[in-house]
Amino acid sequence: MKTLHIFIVSDSVGETGELVAKAAVSQFRPGLQNTSLKRFPHIETLDHIKEIVHLAKIQEAMILYTLVKKEMRVSLQIDCATQGVKSIDLMGPLMDTLEDCLGEVPFEEPGLVRKLDEDYFKKIEAIEFAVKYDDGRDPRGLLLADIVLIGVSRTSKTPLSQYLAHKRFKVANVPLVPEVEPPEELFRVEPSKCFGLVISPDKLNFIRKERLIALGLNDDASYAKLDRIQKEIKHFEKVVAMIGCQVIDVTNRAVEETANVILNKIQ
Which residues are 7's β-sheet partners? Predict the structure, then answer.
């Protein structure tokens, strides 16, 4: 039984071309003929193109290609026509149509979609990390984090963690309370990765009262009293002095502004 050879030629990994080839072949009766798929990934020169077309002619193979560089596509088309090799361009017609519709010239950079996918999954991983290690739930995350945030309650640790996670940084945060000793892992974190968030007592007093009211509770609770807040801030100052980390005053800063300060420091 004759074997049908299909060469998958790409300037990236060739995964798209192989998937399309398999989908097309699956539409024909099994056993009708043997099919051999061979990938030629990361094709970067015109000499590579010529060698592949020559091999295709010898093996009576057809070529299915996904090349983003126009020069490479044109070269392959000419070589195939000259050698009498059947070829199918999966990428060119779509890119030409998009160029016409958008009025823009494509980057012609191989592997961009893979880079975008990797970037997306890195962001998702960072977001999941921020949720898992939010509010000191698991101290083990402190040693795995790119950034560690510490501060008393209501200093925007959680929203800041999520914002930085969308920037693809793994962030863990720890609330500091006088009655609870900080986890020992916190003192093993590189000080340059750790940031203390502080806020003025009056501002924090207002925020905590509003929080209690929103929860339907009495705003005169100890949690919102100034003397309690000042006690927490003193404890905070003691801990950050032990760590030797930078302290950021978030009193009049939006989350985005605080994030920019941190990003400028670590980058």
Answer: 38, 63
Instruction: Quote the CA–CA distance of 19 and 92 in Å, as a whole number.
Output: 17
Task: Give me the phi and psi of 177, to 5 degrees please.
Answer: -130, 130
DSSP state of 181: P
- Is pTM beyond 0.70? Reply is no
The 3-state DSSP class for residue 204 equals: helix
Q: Which amino acid is at 40?
A: F
Q: Whose CA is closest to 174, among 160, 99, 166, 163?
A: 160
**Contact criterion met (CB below 8 Å) for 255 and 159:** yes
**Conformation bin of residue 121: beta by default, left when phi > 0, alpha when psi is -120 to 50:** alpha
Please give the distance of CA 77 from its chain centroid, rounded to a whole number. Answer: 37
Helical H segments across 84-191, by residue range: 92-102, 112-132, 157-165
pLDDT means per 10 residues, the chain with 267 residues, are 89 91 86 82 94 96 96 96 97 92 89 78 94 95 97 97 96 97 96 97 94 90 94 97 97 96 93
User: Hey, how many other C-beta atoms are within 10 angstroms of the C-beta on 163?
Assistant: 19
